[in-house]
What does this fold into?
Amino acid sequence: MWQPKTGPAGPSRRFFFLARWPVVLALLTAAAVACSAASAGSEPLPGTPKPASAPSAYSSTKSVSGRVTKVLTIVEENHSLEQMRSGMPYLAGLAARFGYADHYSAITHPSLPNYLAITGGDTFGVTDDGPPSAHPLSGTSVFGQALAAGKTADLYAESMAEPCALTGKGNRGYAVRHNPWAYYVDERPACAAAEAGGDFLAAARANALPNAGMLIPNTCNDAHDTDQSCDLGVADNWLRQQLPTVLASHDFTSGALAVVVTADEDDRHSANTVLTVVLQAGLEGSGTVVHTPLTHYSLSRLYSQVIGVAPLRQAAGAPDLAAPFHLPIG
It folds into this structure.
């Protein structure tokens, strides 16, 4: 601590020190309050190391301005919050650095109705993983909402042979049950005009990701085909290859793009609670942990909020995802 020098001092010097001390104490008190405020509300992800220093692109959030105008969702497969947190160190590190929800639940089992919940705000009564021919859905998705509002939409599905392919069972490749846009028959032409998936990184690099976007790994890179050595480590490494380009884009560093990484469902042993990580430039370094109960309907609601339209179906009454993460969407 700084201290005045000792030794004799006349009246004027004593007055100088006495007058100085209230200012010093005020400065020290302000610094302590600032430190306390900075630490409040920042909860590290249990079981993960302290994240390394941020790259220069994220060294400060002071330059982040404007509201979120784009949402990109990446969906992993069939693993719980705890499984993902322990088996995906890269994703867990991002969660610790930006933010995640620890009470986020998928809607049901199996895969398809959860994808429909995210994109349509409802499961539409679907209870299986049947193809689009078995479940032709009328009505609007969040992709259709975006296009109707004069904005952009796209779904990038890895290993899809052609845009909006209506068949494909997976086996380390494209599974149509993981491509929800293919099920909305009224939007088929728009879905068919979307990318086949190969240009995703180019679009990210060019700040050309859509307002309503979804990135779907194939059934190996989403940790679905665990019986074929496609485990969470493989999925984590795939994210490590995709996300740096996204996070380095101006769309992201400006705060315009929010990225949500979640899972369609758990392994049926954890009450369907899945790890859901939210990445947005304003969250950089916060380590935000949201305890509010959220669901895939909350994610559907976020899409509509960012687009600037009313949430679809059951998403209208879903808990808000944007508010607890302090995402600027208004």
Q: What stands out?
A: Residues 11-39 form the longest helix (29 residues). The radius of gyration is 24 Å. Strands lie at 70-76, 99-101, 104-105, 153-157, 212-216, 257-263, 276-279, 288-290, 294-295. Confidence is low (pLDDT under 50) at residues 1-63.
